[in-house]
Every structure is written in structure tokens, then in C-alpha cells.
């Protein structure tokens, strides 16, 4: 898999495993096809809402890739062998690109329902972490869990994601916090990619918290991470990206810079959890490092927004996390969009701050809570989310040459996807032309 680390866009070559592909399929009966219009990078400003709507459309797929996407009459005219092709009648439904979830913590053991209840009663998230709970309690359980258990847990969640229309999922490690356990988690991610019909994008996040055995010695943990964990992960080619929780009381901007610079030197591209609970200059650091994405951004500064915009760093917004933490003030999406930040959306699926698996629900929250339009939410959950995981030229839009990752939804108009809050409208989810979920039932 050496080629995964070469190009600027990893989607073309970095296949997640030796799964059989090569399906030809003609999809007809699409009442409305709704897709962002790909440009030469992530979309920003007015382009975010300039989606393409085609009535009475069809999609022709050959070898798992889209060959034609447009009016049904045109597609049929250009396809002399249409009668001999396998076909799928969308039955007058809406087709959108497969949803891309560019920020999850999918592999872990144990839920945190007691902490959920404590936070409802007013306990602060970082206070729980500082007292040895939170992320660290998940680390205790994840370290003890055998790989097979972690695999089965993650598989169960991935099935629910696919049933809700997700076709590409970024997955961070970060509940191991030592070499053996971080490698264990990333090997589970690799196995998921080999065995099931979803694409998983692996990110090393050894700097998610300071483990108990290094309590009060963050510097010493950073040294250990740089000397041992990071080289082990890089040498095994287990991750494409490296992420750091840059936050007051966790890792400082300086420590984050050191970790991400070294990661970059080893071929792992930088991402950041930044400016979530307070403004720490994380967005500024993401721009300085040329990070692929900068995530959370609830407390991002004006300068940080301008630097992200200037650098075309994707700002990944996680409204489900703000909601689950009971925040009344989510990320300033409107201001980011007006300043030209290419914004995207993700679930942040994890047991502490976002047990949320559906990108459709995230799109609803983006509209009602972040005040994004349904068209902006669609672009943010597809093409821009693809850019946030360096797959912006291979997935995230319904256009010739792209992989046939498609969601056919039980809707007459694409805006219903965000409008029906909490409903799963996915009638069929297709990954590279293969149906992987039907009417809420995963096929793997
Ligand atoms: O993105 N902020 C840090 N990491 C996760 C939470 C992980 C956890 O609480 O287990 C997040 O919100
Ligand atoms: Fe996260």
C-alpha cells in the first residue's frame, strides 16, 4: 500500500482492500439528482450552495465508477447496450452522493452512559477527563479488549452508518495511548477496510489525551509518542493522517506543532482537533502546518478563520458534539462561510461527546443549529468532507470519473434529507455501484 502516501489525492489509488469490484449498473427513475459541482478544491462561499439539480435523471456505472450522470433520456441515448445492463429503478426517488464522514473515533470498547448522566447534572467534560475519567476510562477498557471484540464493535457501528447513507469513514485511533494498543486499533481499522464494503481512512491520534502512566508529565508523553509510537505507526503504514487534541489542559499548540511536523516528515498528513472548548490558536496552527482539515472550531478566532480560508484548509464542523455536550453556542458556521472557509460536516462519532452515527442527522443539525442551507449542508457532507480526507477528486459528487458512491433517498426533494430531523431516508446505499444497505438494512 505504499502508493497511499504519494499523491495529493489518495482516493484514486489507496483502495481499502482486495474487495471484488467491477459492477456495471444502470440506475433509472431518479426524480431528482442533487450533487455539488466539483471544482479544483474544496468548495467555499457561494459555490457551497451552487448544487446541480437534475430532474428525471439516470446514472450509468461501469466498473464501479460513474460514466454518465444526467437526464435519463440523454443517458439512454448514449448507452446502446442499456437493455443488456443490470438496472436499478430508483422509483422516483432522490439520488445524492454517498455521504462522507471525515471525523470519527469508531474503534473503542465500552459506553459512557454514567458520564452522560453526570454531565447532564452539570459536570464539566474537561473536569471529568482531568479526574481520570472521560477519554481515559475508554482507554482502560479499550486496552483490555481483544482485537476481535473491537472489530465486532466497530463493525456494528459501521453497519449503522452504511444504513444511514455513509460510504466513506475516517477513523482515528486514540483510545490506546501506547504503542501496542494504538497499533491494535489501527490494525482493526485496516481489517475493516479489507473485509467490508465501506472505505475507511485511518488517522493516528496518539495525542488524544495523556495516559494515566504519564499523568502530570505531558512533555514526557510527547517525547515517548515522538520516539516510539509515531515511528511504529508510520513504519507499518497504518495511518494516512495524524491528529492532535490541541486544547487547554490537553496538548499545547507548541506540542501539537512538534507532533504534527514530525508526522508530516514520516508521511502522515496533519489534522487538528482545535478551538473546541476554548480558543487556543489551533486554527492558526492548522493553517501554518498546511493541515488537510481543522476540526471543531467552536471558539475559532477571526484571524484563525481568515487563515483557514487563505490556506483552503477544510473546517470540519461537528454540531452533534455541541448538541450532545449541551452547548448553546455551536461553531460560527455562517461567519466561516462568509469569510471563505471551505466548511464540511462530520459526526465525531465517539462514546464521550458524540454517540451519533448518522450524517443525515448532522445535516439537519447543520441547518437548524448552524444555520447552513440544505444545499450547503449537502456540499459539506459530500464533496468537502471528501476533501477533508484527501479524496476530493474521487468521491463526494455524482459526476463522470468518480466512484459510484450513491444514496437513493425516500424523498421527492433533496431538502427533505435535512428537513425530516432524525429520520433515516436512505432507501439504498451504493458503494462503487454495489448496494451495501437497503431500506435501513446493511448487507454486510
Ligand atoms: O472529538 N475532543 C476530543 N476527542 C473527542 C472526544 C473523545 C471522548 O470523549 O472519548 C471529540 O470530541
Ligand atoms: Fe473528535
Structure summarized in a few sentences:
The chain has 444 residues and is an alpha/beta fold.
Report what the structure shows.
The chain has 444 residues and is of the alpha/beta class. It folds into two domains: 2-97 and 397-442, Urease, subunit C, domain 1 (Roll); 100-387, Metal-dependent hydrolases (TIM Barrel, Alpha-Beta Barrel), CATH 3.20.20. The chain has helices spanning 72-77, 113-120, 125-130, 135-144, 147-163, 179-195, 218-235, 253-265, 282-289, 302-311, 319-324, 333-338, 359-368, 374-381, 383-388, 416-419, and strands at 25-35, 52-62, 65-71, 87-97, 99-101, 166-172, 199-207, 241-246, 269-274, 293-296, 314-317, 343-345, 406-409, 426-431, 434-438, 441-442. An eight-stranded mixed β-sheet has the order 3-2-1-4-13-14-15-16. An eight-stranded parallel β-sheet has the order 5-6-7-8-9-10-11-12. Helix 5 (147-163) crosses helix 6 (179-195) and helix 7 runs parallel beside helix 8 (253-265). The chain is globular. The protein starts with 24 loop residues before the first strand and ends with a strand. The model is unreliable at 1-18 (pLDDT under 50).
Amino acid at each position: 500500500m505504499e502508493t497511499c502516501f504519494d499523491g495529493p489525492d489518495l482516493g484514486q489509488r489507496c483502495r481499502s482492500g482486495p474487495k471484488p469490484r467491477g459492477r456495471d449498473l444502470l440506475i433509472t427513475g431518479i426524480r431528482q439528482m442533487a450533487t455539488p459541482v466539483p471544482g479544483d478544491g474544496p468548495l467555499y462561499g457561494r459555490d457551497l450552495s451552487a448544487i446541480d439539480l437534475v430532474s428525471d435523471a439516470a446514472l450509468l456505472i461501469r466498473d464501479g465508477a460513474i460514466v454518465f450522470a444526467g437526464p435519463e433520456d440523454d443517458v439512454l441515448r448514449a448507452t446502446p447496450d442499456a437493455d443488456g445492463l443490470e438496472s436499478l429503478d430508483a422509483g422516483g426517488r432522490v439520488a445524492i452522493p454517498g455521504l462522507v464522514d471525515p471525523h470519527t473515533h469508531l474503534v473503542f470498547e465500552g459506553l459512557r452512559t454514567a458520564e452522560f448522566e453526570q454531565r447532564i447534572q452539570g459536570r464539566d467534560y474537561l473536569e471529568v477527563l482531568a479526574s481520570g475519567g472521560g477519554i481515559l476510562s475508554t482507554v482502560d477498557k479499550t486496552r483490555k479488549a481483544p482485537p476481535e471484540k473491537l472489530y465486532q464493535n466497530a463493525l456494528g457501528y459501521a453497519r449503522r452508518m452504511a444504513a444511514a447513507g455513509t460510504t466513506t469513514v475516517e477513523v482515528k485511533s486514540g483510545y490506546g495511548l501506547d504503542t501496542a494498543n494504538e497499533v491494535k486499533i489501527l490494525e482493526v481499522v485496516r481489517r475493516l477496510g479489507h473485509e467490508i464494503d465501506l472505505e475507511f481512512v485511518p488517522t493516528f491520534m496518539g495525542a488524544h489525551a495523556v495516559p494515566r502512566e504519564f499523568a502530570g508529565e505531558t512533555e514526557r508523553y510527547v517525547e515517548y509518542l515522538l520516539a516510539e509510537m509515531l515511528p511504529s505507526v508510520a513504519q507499518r503504514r497504518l495511518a494516512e493522517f495524524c491528529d492532535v487534541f490541541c486544547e487547554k489542559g490537553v496538548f499545547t499548540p507548541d506540542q501539537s506543532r512538534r507532533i504534527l511536523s514530525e508526522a508530516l516528515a514520516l508521511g502522515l498528513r496533519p489534522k487538528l482537533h482545535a478551538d473546541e472548548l476554548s480558543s487556543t490558536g489551533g486554527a492558526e496552527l492548522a493553517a501554518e502546518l498546511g493541515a488537510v482539515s481543522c476540526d471543531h472550531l467552536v471558539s475559532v478566532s477571526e484571524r484563525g478563520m481568515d487563515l483557514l480560508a487563505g490556506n483552503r484548509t477544510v473546517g470540519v464542523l461537528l454540531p452533534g458534539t455541541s448538541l450532545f455536550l449541551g452547548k448553546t453556542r455551536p461553531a460560527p458556521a455562517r461567519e466561516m462561510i462568509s469569510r471563505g472557509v471551505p466548511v464540511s460536516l462530520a459526526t465525531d462519532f465517539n462514546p464521550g461527546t458524540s454517540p451519533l452515527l448518522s450524517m443525515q442527522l448532522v445535516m439537519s443539525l447543520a441547518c437548524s443549529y448552524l444555520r447552513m442551507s440544505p444545499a450547503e449542508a449537502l456540499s459539506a457532507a459530500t464533496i468537502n468532507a471528501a476533501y477533508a480526507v484527501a479524496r476530493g477528486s474521487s468521491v463526494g459528487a455524482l459526476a463522470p470519473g468518480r466512484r459510484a458512491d450513491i444514496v437513493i433517498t425516500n424523498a421527492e426533494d433533496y431538502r427533505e434529507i435535512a428537513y425530516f430531523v432524525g429520520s433515516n431516508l436512505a432507501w439504498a446505499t451504493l458503494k462503487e455501484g454495489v448496494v451495501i444497505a437497503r431500506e435501513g438494512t446493511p448487507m454486510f
